[in-house]
Design a protein that fits this description.
This protein is an all-alpha fold. The chain has a single domain (5-185), classed as Hypothetical protein af1432 (Orthogonal Bundle), CATH 1.10.3210. 61% of the residues lie in helices and 0% in strands. The chain is built from ten helices and no strands. It has helices spanning 5-15, 19-38, 43-52, 70-78, 83-91, 103-123, 135-143, 153-163, 167-180, 182-185. Helix 2 packs across helix 9 (167-180), helix 6 runs antiparallel to helix 8 (153-163) and helix 6 packs across helix 9 (167-180). The chain is globular, with a radius of gyration of 16 Å.
């Protein structure tokens, strides 16, 4: 069974009630889809994978067997999801030990943590808008270890390295992708997230 973007979105919203976690998956989708477009990959598959990479986290937050992302991947496999999707989702979590061998897996991993840094940087801006956020500002916030402590800087660096791209060019690419979807990500300064 092919899990297209609409099916993935429905599944993600069924399993995830948290607006911030939904927003995270939508932000990762924006970045991953932008890479898919640039690389002439299957945008629908890449978007669906990004939307579902954390969809089981709210229900099964513990790591390891019986937790995230194993439960979600087992459910996806029961639906007949493509193995490329399942392997990328398993690979985005270092604790699974699943190697990131596909381009999709590497892109998903590279985009995951950096979207958190960007979102955190937007939310501390007075206007709560991504529009004026710059790469230079993100570089400064990245160096400030007290800012967005939950963002694993080593994972951000490793993601760009595994992708074979310059870290700050990658961050800027993800920032631009998120800017194009600012309204639907709730990062345009308006109140509420427009899922």
């Amino acid at each position: 069974m092919r899990i297209d973007r609409d099916t993935a979105y429905a599944l993600m919203t069924e399993w995830t009630q948290s607006e911030s976690l939904r927003g995270h998956m939508l932000a990762v989708e924006a970045a991953v889809a932008a890479y898919a477009e640039r690389e002439h990959a299957d945008v629908d598959l890449w978007s669906a994978t990004a939307l579902l990479h954390d969809f089981d986290y709210e229900r099964h937050p513990h790591l390891g067997e019986g937790g995230h992302p194993y439960v979600g991947v087992a459910h996806l496999r029961s639906l007949g999801a493509p193995e490329a999707m399942c392997e990328a989702i398993l690979g985005h979590a270092d604790h699974t030990g699943v190697p990131r061998t596909s381009r999709l897996a590497r892109v998903l991993y590279a985009c995951d943590e950096v979207t958190g840094l960007i979102t955190a940087a937007v939310l501390v801006r007075p206007d709560k808008s991504i529009e004026g956020l710059t790469r230079k500002s993100l570089e400064k916030k990245f160096r400030d270890k007290a800012f967005a402590r939950g963002v694993a800087r080593d994972d951000v660096r490793r993601g760009a390295e595994e992708l074979g791209v310059d870290l700050w060019e990658h961050v800027e690419f993800v920032l631009d992708a998120m800017k194009r979807r600012a309204a639907s990500l709730g990062l345009d300064g308006s109140s509420g997230r427009g899922l």
